[in-house]
Amino acid sequence: MHLVPMMASLKSFPWRPLVLVMVLSGLRGAVSASEGEGDSYASTPWRGSIAFDGLFATDVQLTQESATYRVGPGAWEVSLTAGLGTIGLDYEPVGFDFLGESTRIDEIRASGQTSGRWRLGEEITVLGGAGIYDGFTDYRSAWLSEYYRQQFSALPGYISPTPEGHSLNGGMR
User: Fold this and answer.
1) pTM here?
2) Which end of the chain is more exposed for a tag (fewer CB within 10 A), N or C?
3) What is d(CA 173, CA 171) in angstroms, rounded to the nearest whole number?
4) Distance CA 164, CA 108 (A)
5) What is the pLDDT of residues 110-159, one digit of tens each?
6) Smallest Cα–Cα separation from 61: which of 23, 93, 33, 20?
7) How many Å apart are CA 11 and CA 4, to the nearest integer?
8) Rounded CA gap, 64 and 85, in Å?
9) Is pLDDT above 90 for 161?
């Protein structure tokens, strides 16, 4: 079955919004550190996973893709994750909004994250991580950005948003 004809036929369904959620997760590669000993997944020096989430409706399309690589055969573990998300919205202003106009919003978000875990003994584990993103984190933010652009961009001093951020975290348990 081809996806393009299927998506075109889905738009003709009478209910709105038609939501399809597709999840592909758990593709894991593993190489055993010592073949034949113990649980092969628990004893692997590396693990990888790929994930895809999507929401497809008549006026909203959201996707999130990520790939994670983990390494750490014993008292420590480090993971790296790269992600890409897309937002597609058909923006429709309310009836009494005389400044608003219908438009299409398409945004992309790229992200990266790393985290680590180190066991210092049987009872203490140190945790740390860092992350970065560039783009709107959710569809509500993209919608609000378009609303404010249409309402206030003609005023002096209006600054268009450039959504980006970073995180740094740590802990002990």
Assistant:
1) 0.67
2) N
3) 7
4) 12
5) 999 999 999 988 889 999 999 999 999 999 999 999 999 999 999 999 99
6) 20
7) 11
8) 4
9) yes
Contact partners, residue 33, CB within 8 Å, separation at least 6: 43, 44, 45, 73
Q: How many CA atoms lie within 13 A of 97 on its CB side?
A: 13
Question: pLDDT tens digits for 86-104?
Answer: 999 999 988 888 888 999 9
Contacts of 2 (CB under 8 A, 6+ apart): none
Dihedral sign, Cα of residue 85, residue 88, residue 94, residue 97: positive
Residue 139 tokens read as 């569809």
Q: Is residue 7 predicted with pLDDT exceeding 60?
A: no
Number of residues that this document lists for the chain? 173
For 32-72, the pLDDT digits (tens) are: 333 344 444 455 677 899 999 999 999 999 999 999 999 98
Burial of 134 (0-12, 13-18, 19+ CB in 10 A): middle
Nearest one of 70, 65, 106, 105 to 84, comparing CA atoms: 65
What is the C-alpha to C-alpha distance for residues 82 and 43, in angstroms, rounded to an integer?
24
